[in-house]
Amino acid sequence: MKPESAGSLAVVGLGPGTSALRTPEATAALEAATDIIGYGTYVDLAGPFRPDQALHASDNRVELDRARHAFTLAAEGAHVAVVSSGDAGIFAMAAAVLEALDGADEPAWRRVALRILPGVSAANAAAALAGAPLGHDFCVLSLSDNLKPWTEIERRLALVCEADLVLALYNPRSKARPHQFGAALALIRGHRAADTVVVLGRDVGRPAEQVGVTTLAALRPEQVDMRTVVIIGSSRTRRIERPDGGAWVYTPRWY
Ligand code: SAH
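Above: the input entities. Below: the structure tokens describing the complete assembly.
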């Protein structure tokens, strides 16, 4: 294949849901794409598309397969958009796309014009609705042990607690892993005060959006699922009551 025939590949972070939280750059990349690749739910979220755009929605959870498919099409001249919810670089497709490139002996893939477009991640969006819980040092952890051992997750949770970082938890609790959130909670409760502020953001940026503020002692695993991002405050995180009965949450920037 001649170098000039190589197409392009944009890894697009869609934001959490509503197009209002999608960057203009991401929207432009979706419009320019000849082919859209992603997990079915995210391809739906990215649309609507024109009849001349090819949709490759898959339920295949093997991200590397999807990434290789994207390079194969782009190397043939297609303008491919690989879509992820939130930010494509946070527990999403951007790393898989680079891993596919890294492991491939395909000169045509290296000629593909590759761009990674950032998006508003679930934790950003939920934090803004609640106030500014991520206002000081924080850490983002996935509780899923599909791709890493649970012992490593426990080790990191203990270290995060020791460092008194605000903690944003992604993939907190699924049907296949119903007990791990409780185990993580027990571990965190061993380090942090009962009245530590907790923010729950569910379906943020989507029609069913819910944001709740609770405490570490009151938090129950049943309140949390795979559509929830959980932000657990540090010892400094505070709440201010709102007239409507809700609360603003913030972590001050000073020590
Ligand atoms: N790339 C995504 C994260 C993918 S991991 C991002 O940057 O947001 C999937 C996890 O993200 C979910 O289990 C949930 O914890 C969180 N999440 C994604 N979208 C969300 C939303 N709209 N509301 C609440 N949590 C969300």
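Note for the figure: The pocket of S-adenosyl-L-homocysteine is lined by residues 16-17, 84-87, 90-92, 121-122, 170-172, 201-206, 226-229 (CB under 6 Å).
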